[in-house]
Amino acid sequence: MQTNNFKSLSMGVLCALSLASCMEKDLYQAPEEKTADEYFGFTTSSSCTVDLNYGLNYQVVFELYAENPLSEDKDGNIIKTKEEPVYRGATDKKGIFNDFISIPSYLTELYLYSDYLGTVSPIQLQITNGKVSFDQQAFIQSKRNAKGTSRGVTNSGYKYPEGFQVLGEWNEIGCPTYLSSTPTEIDGQLMYNIREVFIKPGGSAAMEDYYPEYIGDNVNIEINVKKPTEIGLVMLSSTGTKQNTVGYFTYPTDQKPTDISQVTPIIAYPRISTAVCNSSSTAGSMYTGDRVELKYWDGTKFVNEFPAGVSIAWFLIESSYNQGTKEIMNNKRTFYSIRDLNKSKEHRTIALKNKSGEVVAFGMEDATNFEPTGDNTRKGNFGDAVFYLDFSDGSAIETGGVEELPDKSIDNKEIYNSFKGVLSFEDFWPSKGDYDMNDMIVEYKREIYKSVLTSKVVKVIDTFVPKHDGANWQNGFGYQLTGIANSDIKKITVESGGIVSQFMEGQDREPGQNYPTIILFDNQKAAINKTFTVTIDVAQERFTETAFTPFFNNKFWEQTYSKFNMNPFIIISANTGRDKEAHIVKFPPTSKMNFSYFGTGSDVSRPDEGLYYVNNENMPTGLQISGISVGTKRGTDFLVPVETTSILEAYPKFGDWASSFGASNPYWWKDPDNSKVITQ
Questions:
Q1: Which of 502, 471, 479 is nearest to 423 (CA)?
Q2: What would the pLDDT profile of 292-331 be if each residue is shown by its tens digit?
Q3: What CATH number does the domain located at 45-144 have?
Q4: Per-residue b/e over 310-329, b at no fewer than 16 CB within 10 Å?
Q5: Rounded to two decimals, what is the model's pTM?
């Protein structure tokens, strides 16, 4: 019995041990694999929906900036930044734009800018839930409502210079209460033509460089009424920041005044301002299309029609409107369209006519700080006050010194968008690295040129500059247009200062690749600070801009286009072979890659699922940072981590940014630990 009992106990213990062993295996089995979405991609670009409605009947080219693109110099002139915009685009022929764009993910606002007539610029737009919106008509109405703009006449008691006449009252920001109730719509082609002459801020604006014939010594503007007519004065634009006043006067055609005391000046616009620059409280009293019906002063009263035998001239009082007192002051200089009335007899006005000979526009210059003399207005743009003239009878006017408008359009114009940033690579892959992310650091810039009319890409220009080499190996660098067929690229031209890759075999793209692939160099040590420019000629009318937008994180967009159209990589130890590539996390390798490296070392890629360059530490092999450059200026540049110092230590906020999938500390690169980055 005892023996049988012992056998039974032994069997029970064995079963218990066996069961415990099974339970232990269940409790300590390997953790489940992460899904692809559980790995962060280590890029800093995001999608933003842009919804614009300018309310215009013509196409507008616009730009979006990370910061206000306009500023004022010490003389009050508007200066436009030379920085590239975050995005540059064109509306349809109704002034409407709605599309996805790619922006640096750390931005919280954008500035909308356009130099096209009829647009209010710049406008600060908040990014809300990945979207910015702007309805210009609603914006204008809200500004007017906020400022209490009434069309009715009030007993304001606002003052104006003695000896002047006024057409009516104005409100606190200088907007006339006698504006026509309906803004004037101007033909789109005419708007293009007028804009061509009165150049907005940015670039060279000297009239003498563009249209010297408009300001020749023999040019004297005359606008003579030969038949009775009514005249409407329509605001187009003002690029000035001064609080100027604009008006007119008449005189018998055969008695041109030699002194202003011989005429009666009439104020038409107490304050002209369309540029929203640094002060939203003082900008925007007038908008394109605002119209004033001019009246003829017969010596005792105003009448609607201007009689035959008189001429009309213009004046601008510099910095005359006082927003504090709401009065028009006459203690500033006044400039006239009649040159003999100006201090130096300089040009202050340009008037232009259409092909039918009708005067349609004039522009005035208010600057006094030109070199070599203050009144050398030939260097001005004459865009400080630009107006459209509308005569009830266009044939009622004859002119002198009025040139014909150039015939310009938006046809065949190309615009481009520029995307720049930093690429940073770790070359220990697939082994565990030190993750100092400085084994190769490259600045990149992509310019995508497209037709304004069709929005189709014409060419792409990519620029790469290797800025830092922290590697022990001899590494190469290249990139692939993953997802773009070789047949869709007509030609690729590389300017490299004589540096070429052996892997290109003398071709314009690497042979044997499924997609266009360009290897720029095989040895980063010989390429540091060299510029590599790649021009890609694209098959015409084939692609929209989004097909080439780099690092674009947009799920809807990815259903149609490849996310990897700029797929940069390093070739690790390029001197020993071509088969070992390190890419940005989750970006695919090229067909030259030896796939046996995946799943070795610390790499946990799953090529069969299309998941590449992820590791068990969730650290990057390649990193992309949008919108910045490599340098030593804290808060502006990407500062290179010190050798063998993990980027987690060099940038204390990097870890939180990565673990939050970019939601926290999007500006992590602005706050390095100065003791762990290269600062000089």
A1: 479
A2: 999 999 999 999 999 999 999 999 999 898 878 888 987 7
A3: 2.60.40
A4: bbbbbbbbbbbbeeeebbbb
A5: 0.84
